[in-house]
């Protein structure tokens, strides 16, 4: 007897696919991402690798200059939101 996958409508869940299918897809995607990452690191002479190396210092500089302000603003917004909820 073959097992039929159940749809989310039959199980009453919100999932679009069967849990086994979703798990298999996630595993396959993870393996693909690891493989691609290893290939990119192995050959930094590709256009992607060269651009990554050129952009890395610029992104670091931008983050060093802007990240503290962004984090401070977001924390302040969250504190104010929580304070409004407490009233």
Low-confidence stretches: 6-12
User: What is the count of distinct domains?
Assistant: 2
User: Which H/E pattern describes the elements?
Assistant: HHH
Q: Which radius of gyration do the C-alpha atoms yield?
A: 23 Å
Question: Ends: how far apart?
Answer: 60 Å
Percent strand: under 5%
Helix content: over 70%
Description of the molecule:
Pfam families: DUF2497 (PF10691). This is DUF2497 domain-containing protein. It comes from Henriciella algicola. With about 90 residues, this protein is mostly helical. It folds into two domains: about 1-40; about 45-85. About 80% of the residues lie in helices and about 0% in strands. It contains three helices and no strands. The protein has helices at about 10, 20-40, 45-85. The protein starts with 7 loop residues before the first helix and ends with a helix. Residues about 5-10 have low confidence and may be disordered.
Summarize the structure in short.
The chain has helices spanning 8-11, 19-42, 47-86. The chain has 87 residues and is mainly alpha-helical. It folds into two domains: 1-42; 45-87.
Summarize the SSE layout with pairings.
Layout: H1 8-11, H2 19-42, H3 47-86
Main attributes of the structure:
3 helices; 2 domains; flat; DUF2497 domain-containing protein; 78% helix; mainly alpha; 87 residues; DUF2497
């Amino acid at each position: 007897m073959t097992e039929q996958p159940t749809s989310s409508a039959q199980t009453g869940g919100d999932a679009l696919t069967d849990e086994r299918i979703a798990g298999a897809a996630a595993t396959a995607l993870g393996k693909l991402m690891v493989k691609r990452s290893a290939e990119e690191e192995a050959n930094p002479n590709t256009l992607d690798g060269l651009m990554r190396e050129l952009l890395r210092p610029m992104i670091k500089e931008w983050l060093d200059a802007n990240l503290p302000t962004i984090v401070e603003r977001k924390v302040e917004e969250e504190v104010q939101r929580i304070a409004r909820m407490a009233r």
